[in-house]
Amino acid sequence: MSEFEKAPLQKALAIEDRLKRALYVVGVIARDLDPLAQPIVVGGTAVEFYTLGAYTTHDVDLVCPSRPKAVEALERLGFERSESLRHWYHGELEMVIEIPDEHLAGDTQRLAEVVIDGLTVHVIGVEDLILDRLRACVHWRSESDCEWARRMIAIHRREMDWDYLLKAAKEEDLYERLRVLDPCE
Predict the structure, then answer these.
(1) Are residues 132 and 115 in the same domain?
(2) Tens of pLDDT along the chain (185 residues)?
(3) 154: CB partners within 8 A, 6+ apart
(4) Where are the beta strands (DSSP E) in the chain?
(5) Can you tell me whether residue 157 is helix, strand or coil?
(6) Pair (106, 131) in one structural domain
(7) What CATH number is associated with residue 94?
(8) Which residues have CB under 8 Å from 163's CB, separation 6+?
(9) Fewer C-beta within 10 Å: the chain N or C terminus?
C-alpha cells in the first residue's frame, strides 16, 4: 500500500463514530471512480443514516454500477475478500463491505449526497429506502422492517416526496401496509 493509500486509512482509523467512518471509507472508494460508477450506500447503513443512528449495523452494503472498479479500490485500501466471496473485510478498520448489486432498486435522481471531510458519498433516497423496508415488511413479514419504515417516515415526513412514495407503494401493492404504518397519510 502506497503512502497515498495509507493516508485515508489513517484518517478513517481516527474517526470514532462508526457511521461517519463507514461513510468516509465509501467516499475514499468513490473518489477514484468515474462519476457514473459511484457506489451508493443502501441497506442497513442507509437505515442508520436516515434514523440518525437509532438503527445500527456492522456491515456496509453498496450498489456499485462498476463492481470491478470498486473491488480494485477495496483491494488498494487493504480489504480482503471473505471465504463466502460476498464480503470484503478490513481487520484494522473492523469493517465489512458487501456489494450485493450493480443496479439500484430506486431512482438515482433521489440520492442523498453527503460530504465527509471533502469526500462525496451517495445514499439511496429515503423514499426508496422506505419502499425497500416495506417490501421486506410485506413479503417477508418482517415486523422489524415495518418498524424501521415507520421510524424513517416519522423522522423525514416533512421533506419526503409523498407523491413518489404513494405512487410506488400503490404500484407494488405496498399501499395498505404504508397506510397502517402511517395513519396520517
Answers:
(1) no
(2) 555 567 888 999 999 999 999 999 999 999 989 888 899 999 999 999 999 999 999 899 999 998 999 999 999 999 999 887 789 999 999 999 999 999 999 999 999 999 999 999 999 999 999 999 999 999 999 999 999 999 999 999 999 999 999 999 999 999 999 999 877 75
(3) none
(4) 40-42, 59-63, 80-81, 87-90, 95-101, 112-116, 119-123
(5) coil
(6) no
(7) 3.30.460
(8) none
(9) N
H-run or E-run covering 100: strand 95-101
Enumerate the β-bridge partners of residue 28.
none
The total domain count for the chain is 2
CA 114 to chain centre: 11
Distance of CA 39 to the CA centre of its chain: 9
Range of the domain at 135: 127-181
Supply the pTM of this predicted model. Answer: 0.94
